[in-house]
Each structure stands twice: as C-alpha cells, then as structure tokens.
Amino acid sequence: MEIYKLPIQVAIIVFPVIAFILTLPFLVYEYRKFGSIHIIKSVVFFSFILYIITAYFMVILPLPKIEDVLKYKGNIAQLHPFRFINDITVTTNFKINDLNSLLRFLNKSTVYTVILNFFLLLPFGVYLRYLFDRKWYQSIILSFLLSLFFELTQLTGLYGIYPRPYRLFDVDDLIINTLGGFFGFLITPLLTVFLPSKKELNERSLIKGQKVSLVRRSVSLLIDLILLSAFTLVFRVIFLRTKYEDYYVIASIILYFIIIPLLNNTKTPGKVLLKLEVVSTNNKYGIMKVVLRNILLSFIILFPSSWLQLLKGNISDISFYIIVVIITIIEIINFIYYIIPYGEEKEHLFLYERISQTKNKSTIIVEVEENEEKEIKRKNKQLRAK
Fold it and tell me: Which of 22, 121, 323, 368 is a Cys-bridge partner for 180, taking CB atoms 3.0 to 4.6 Å apart?
C-alpha cells in the first residue's frame, strides 16, 4: 500500500503548475459562455484536475530504472477476462464469521488491487455526471477509454521510454475500472446531494456574468498580453537592423491596443473571447474616447517603459527619474480610483477610464436579451400556427 503514497504526493506537488496551465482555457470557456465563474464550479473543476493527475501517477509511478526493466522476463499482458476471481480464490481463505480472516483477506494483494482498481475510476463517473452532464452509456464508454489509455501507457512502457512494459497490461483492470466509473455515475446523486445542480450553477453564473468583474477583466488582459508578445516578436524581426529598430515595441502596442480595437468595434481579441466591449459612461459614443482610453492604458499604465527607454540618454538623469516617479504615482492613483466606487451606480472604474469616460460592458446582457426575444417570437409563432 505504501507505493500509492508517492503518486498522491507527487500529484499534490505538480498540481499547481498543471492547474495554472489548464486554468486559462477553463476561464475563457466559462466567461465566454456565462460571463462569470461560480466558486463551487471552480472548486469541483480543480478537484477534477487533481484527481486525474493522481490517477495517472498511480498508473505510472514509481518509475523503475531502465536497467532493472531490461531484466524483466515475465508476461507483458493478461488477456483472460475475470481471472482475478480465480486469483482471489486461490490466494485467500476467507471465513465470513472470522474478523481476522476478513482482515487477512483484505490485506492480500489479489484483493486490494481489485478494490483499488474499482475505486480508481469511481470519481471519474461522478465528475462525468455532475460536472460534464454525461449520460450513463457515455460514462461507460469514457471510463473504458480512460482505463484503456492507462493500460496502453503500461503496455507501451510509458510510450517507448522503457524497452518493455514494467507493469502488466490486464484485461481485468479494464473491466473493473469501467465498472467503477459506471458505479460512480450511479451514486452521483448521493454524493452531490448537498451541492447545487449544474443547471443552477449555470443560471447563477449567467446572472452574475451580466456584470464585469475585475477577474474577468484580468483574464481578458492576460490573453491580450500573451497575444501582444507574439505581435512584438514579429515586429522585432521586421524592424531588426533598420532605423526603426528601437520602436518595435511601440509599433506592436499601437497596432494591438489602438488600431485593432478601432477596426473591431472597440474590442481587442481578449475582449472578444470573454465577451466584453468598451462603451461610454455618459452614453455619448466617440471614437476619440476609445483612442484616449487605449493610449492611457497602453503607454501610461501597462507599458510606460516602451517610451521611457527612448528618453533615457536624451534627457538629464534627474528629469528622467522625475518622469518615472510621476508615472509611478499615476499608476498608484489609478488603482486607488478603482477601489473607490464612483457615480450613481457606484461603479469601480480606473483613473484612465474616468478620464476617457469609458468602461467595459458585458455582451452577455445583449445575448440574453436576444435569446429571450427569439424565444418569445418562437412561442408566438407556435400560437399563430395553432
């Protein structure tokens, strides 16, 4: 039983890294569909990631030395279905009225291996039903496929890293894992009785998503920064060894944060993905407001270094440091303004937003209204048809 502690410990260590990698697509999907993320759904999703990592590590760990694997001479596969029943019968002597006999029975590797294989995919069935809304037959198929993936991982010697399998491919494991996944699907209502349904979570997220949270804006900005880095690399190559070599960062920022939003109805790619748009705070739309907003955001708040570096050496050191201090103070004030709600609706707006009289708006509201109108038209059409 000690060998199963290592996979769990490794999963806990590796989990934050993998969770970070998988977080962004999950956030984009949830924000794009609902406009917000419910805390319960987030916890369930992250627990699913941890479970999958742990299950995988239990399949491949501990890793033996390659020279030890070269010495293995046993079978690489067990292809006789339900052989585990005969193995248990041969290796145990269970008496139902003897407690010590029961403990010895459970302590036999032929027994606890079957039990662990059954419970290995039981949570998978629960997640399939609660988190992903899968049907019973889909649970069976997906549990089988996940088990097959685990078994093929063993059969291929960890995808060819080892010269031969260091664990046995067992058809009984496929059967037991699949049964465990299906059983997990069946008992999901019992295990999630205290949790809101997936439909309730989605409805709450949709209502909450009609407002723009700081997290949602941050994810949108993170996506934009990742894409901007690609733009910057392209401009770096284009401007290399030209008289504009020092301006490649400024050029990429202007293209991404100013020109693209002007051509795309105020939206950067990050805003498009998270269904955000820039609107006027006084209901008077003006193209110059958007331009001013993005100039302040890009060159004062996010990337002042893009032009400060060009000033360095062209002005005195004292003047340069005074400008740096002023920019720093402006950035601090910018966040202080967000903390303090402003206006009749007590909105949280940054300083650059108040100066440009702009704010982010969720397009989820528009989509909800459009869907409601379509539903009303559909019902009216059905009534007229009758």
Answer: 121
CB 210 within 8 A of CB 365: yes
Q: Are 276 and 267 in contact (CB under 8 A)?
A: yes
- Cβ atoms of residues 11 and 97 within 8 Å: no
CA nearest neighbour of 84 among 3, 175, 166, 181:
175
Question: Residue 342: is its pLDDT beyond 70?
Answer: yes
**Residue 374 to residues 6, 80, 225, 379, Cα–Cα distance (Å):** 55, 57, 37, 9
The terminus-to-terminus CA distance of the chain in angstroms comes to 68
Q: Which residue is listed with tokens 């100013």? A: 258
Q: How confident is the model at residue 381 (pLDDT cuts 50, 70, 90)?
A: low
Q: Which residues lie below 8 Å from residue 20, measured CB to CB, with a gap of 6+?
A: none
Length of the chain: 386
Residue 185, CA distances (Å) to 40, 43, 116, 122, 192 in order: 19, 19, 17, 8, 11
Structure tokens at 239: 């401007």
Cα atoms found within 13 Å of the Cα of residue 348, Cβ hemisphere only: 11
Q: Would you call 170 helix, strand, or coil by DSSP?
A: strand
* 3-class secondary-structure state, position 107: coil
Please, what is the average pLDDT of the chain? 84
What is the DSSP-derived secondary structure letter of residue 347?
A: B
CA distance 310 to 91: 79
Distance (Å, whole) CA 257 – CA 293: 10
The lowest-confidence range among 102-116, 197-211, 243-257, 308-322 is 102-116
- Report the alpha-carbon distance of residue 289 to residue 86 in Å, rounded: 78
Q: What is the largest CA-CA distance in the chain?
A: 92
Percent helix, strand, coil in the chain, to 5, is: 70, 5, 25
Mind giving me the DSSP string for 239-288? Answer: HTTSTTGGGHHHHHHHIIIIIHHHHTTT--HHHHHTTEEEEETTS---HH
